[in-house]
Design goal:
DNA-binding, elongated, Arc Repressor Mutant, subunit A, 232 residues, repeat, 11 helices, mainly alpha
Length: 232
DNA sequence: AATGAATGCAACCGCAGCAGA
DNA sequence: TTCTGCTGCGGTTGCATTCAT
């Protein structure tokens, strides 16, 4: 058999529409199958990535809020570079997004530190963010309690137990509330002994899962249906 | 206005883990 | 038990946009 050449690189609008359609139809599993039936000349892997990082309607778009940024810093100090784990605590954010954010953050931090060392004699106080995170870039701390306190402290410095009030639509959480949220999800996680769902699949309630679950081992695809209007 | 540097983000790659045959 | 294919993860790259000069 001649292997059909796979497309790579940026996705077109047409491809996006097509992928969304088929994911809605069959759910966000069995990516190889989806890639085949959709007629997209993409690998299953590529389709999954596109969906998870961009097309999934559960995703939040736009900049991270200060509380999300703070949470990322804290969770990173807890989990290290386990981005999917961190993303699991930030609904609507992807591991890729967090990873990118972290890289940017680290880059900024490195630059700031460079600057600070240059003028250390002038201004001895470095940023609170870097205090909070730098110690743990590659060594996740076991004891989250102290980090938590550090961050509460950080928040108090920033704004008396409240974070981010700039946008009226934005919820205002205390750090305790955020941590309660984190801990409660962990409790459920350990109690059920189930893996945390990646955030990107949360609230994916319109997916007709039954199309997959009817038979777990085999995917039945109704070939009689005409989807050619998409590929045409 | 032009251009080079910095930044942000989407996408790819390789690997590990898991489940089914 | 071993093999194979699929999925998901983390690291990395490359391109487009923004910023500074």
């Amino acid at each position: 058999m001649v292997q059909e050449e796979m497309r790579k690189g940026p996705w077109t609008e047409q491809e996006d529409v097509q992928l969304v359609f088929y994911v809605k139809m069959f759910g966000d599993r069995r990516w190889d199958f989806l890639a085949k039936v959709s007629g997209l000349k993409r690998s299953g892997k590529s389709c999954r990535l596109r969906w998870v990082n961009y097309l999934n309607p559960a995703l939040k778009r736009g900049k991270m809020t200060p509380q999300e940024e703070l949470l990322v810093l804290q969770l990173h100090s807890k989990y290290g570079n386990r981005w999917s784990k961190i993303a699991g605590k930030l609904p609507g954010r992807t591991d890729n997004e967090i990873k990118n954010y972290w890289r940017t953050h680290m880059r900024k931090q490195a630059q700031d530190e460079k600057k600070n060392t240059n003028k250390a004699s002038i201004s001895p106080s470095s940023s609170n963010f870097s205090n909070c995170s730098s110690s743990s870039a590659n060594s996740p701390a076991e004891d989250s309690g102290t980090e938590r306190n550090d961050c509460v402290e950080l928040l108090q410095v920033a704004g008396e137990n409240k974070i981010y009030e700039g946008d009226q639509n934005m919820m205002v959480y205390s750090m305790d509330e955020i941590w309660k949220e984190v801990e409660s999800t962990e409790e459920i996680e350990t109690r059920n002994d189930l893996p945390v769902m990646a955030s990107t699949t949360w609230d994916y309630n319109y997916c007709p899962d039954s199309l997959w679950t009817s038979t777990h081992d085999h995917c039945y695809f109704d070939n009689h249906q005409d989807f050619s209007f998409f590929t045409g």
